[in-house]
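note to self — DONT lose this again. spent like an hour looking for the file last time. sequence + predicted structure for the chain T wanted, 184 res
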Amino acid sequence: MNTSAPHKMIAAAIQRERSRAGKSLSALAAEAGIAKSTLSQLEAGNGNPSVETLWALAAALDIPLSLLFETEAPATKLIRASEGEVLESEQSDFAAVLLSRSPPNVRRDVYRVVMQPGEIRRAQPHPRGTVEHMLICSGQMRAGPEGQEEQLWPGDYFTYPGDHPHTYEAQQADTVFLMVMEAP
């Protein structure tokens, strides 16, 4: 089977966290309530784990679910509304895409912002280490670090260093976005 990048990432994370926990394949499978063969397949990068399976593994490993998606993150990240690794439920019509996990010892402030077209808002750098996360709810805008602005539509997620000059420009009336300010 040709394994996809997300499956390889999850496989590597399960192996890494199982090793850190000092658990055998059999022990982890038993604690998570899944078959040893299923866990073996997941660690090989095969299969398509449901959100319930991943939650069970995370619980058995005593880690946040997001650690199963851990990779070295670039300074900026843009996830379009139609992109991202979807986790689906076996129990209901539920689909989730992990956009960002919170690093340890980080504070996050969450804002709902309504912006109108007109002037470009130019933001000065926030304290060192600040990261901004934007999720566009409605409207259209252009935003990001100066010189690296992106065109954004509803459902797009964009993260970038907030400790550099950055801009916001609404291009439709009543543009709404969720802003998360992450500071060390």
